[in-house]
Recover the amino acids of this structure.
């Protein structure tokens, strides 16, 4: 399997290429080049060609990339030529916004369950979902065979929730709580913490 | 200025160090080591020492880092020893969740304005804010001297909103719309798109 030898930093750029290509598709475009993708993303054309070449020969010298074809290939590589069900843990402001987010559709994911511990939230409705009791989470995740979860609970609860999710069979965690969590090696974690991005920018601002 | 010669990838790690240290402070801890910070973050101790050494001598051989002191230094370096006002554009689910988010406090930021184009939203309340009319955004941002904005509008509107924000004097943009935007070189952009993180993880999942 070629993928096992691809550095994670390369894998991290593929979703950006896919998003750009899908944007071009929406613009009714048919072909593109590594130069154009690069300009949209602020990545060099050479880097893009090198990254893609790890997975096959997708472009043709002189004619560039067929957008639809490259989208199809990238979706296969990233395993989003199917739809992944996801569980959202935490039905506060962030969890609710995630559960209602329309941007997962067509990109390989859908929220299929929302959990909370708050008796006032359990049984309530968020968009298309009825908020379920955290006490049932292990049973429900196993029953549905869900492998991806998003954590939208307070930082102080994130590790505990993560442990429970791992025990339930979750293999990929997107953590919105502003805290690093520990998981076994076989589980992937990514983080969304707006302050990390903000601090990276304010460093460059003059006061 | 030493900062000008520090690679952006190093700057990108400093907020993670700061977050870990602030977590330790909450745990009533007083000293730590590059080993411990590294274990919490999955970064090598050597990398952390090297990154920090670009800004000064913060640790002592044998005794490690004084947590409070290192927090203070990192807050200075990242310019979050002050509070930055921010504008949120878009009062939908995501914009509302951001406007109400309690996690900015104590980390250097506060939302101070929320804008939307929808007449049904303008004048309405989100947490402590009255949603303001996008038509007034340039005037309001200039009046307040705001330099940071978060974009939470549909992808199709993000570039247009970004152009308006840059014209209004915004120097740092956190874009929640799932699309790359073009800004002048002097403006910093960071992105939050959960699907990018999800795709980076599903690559590794077995189907």
């Amino acid at each position: 399997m070629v993928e096992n030898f691809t550095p994670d930093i390369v894998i991290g750029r593929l979703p950006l290429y896919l998003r750009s290509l899908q944007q071009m598709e929406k613009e009714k475009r048919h072909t593109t080049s590594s130069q154009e993708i690069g300009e949209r993303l602020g990545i060099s054309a050479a880097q893009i060609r090198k990254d893609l070449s790890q997975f096959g020969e997708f472009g043709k010298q002189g004619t560039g990339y067929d957008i639809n074809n490259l989208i199809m290939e990238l979706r296969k590589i990233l395993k989003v030529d199917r739809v992944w069900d996801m569980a959202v843990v935490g039905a506060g402001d962030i969890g609710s916004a995630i559960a209602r987010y329309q941007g997962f559709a067509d990109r390989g994911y859908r929220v299929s369950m929302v959990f909370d511990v708050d008796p006032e939230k359990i049984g309530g409705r968020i968009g298309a979902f009825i908020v379920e009791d955290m006490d049932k989470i292990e049973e429900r995740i196993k029953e549905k065979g869900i492998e991806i979860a998003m954590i939208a609970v307070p930082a102080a609860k994130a590790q505990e929730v993560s442990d429970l999710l791992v025990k339930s069979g979750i293999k990929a965690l997107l953590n919105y709580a502003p805290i690093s969590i520990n998981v076994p090696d076989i589980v992937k974690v990514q983080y969304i913490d707006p302050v990390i991005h903000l601090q990276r920018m304010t460093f460059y601002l003059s006061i």
The mean pLDDT of chain B is 94. Chain B touches chain A through 61 residues (CB under 8 Å). The first strand of chain B starts at residue 31 and ends at 32.
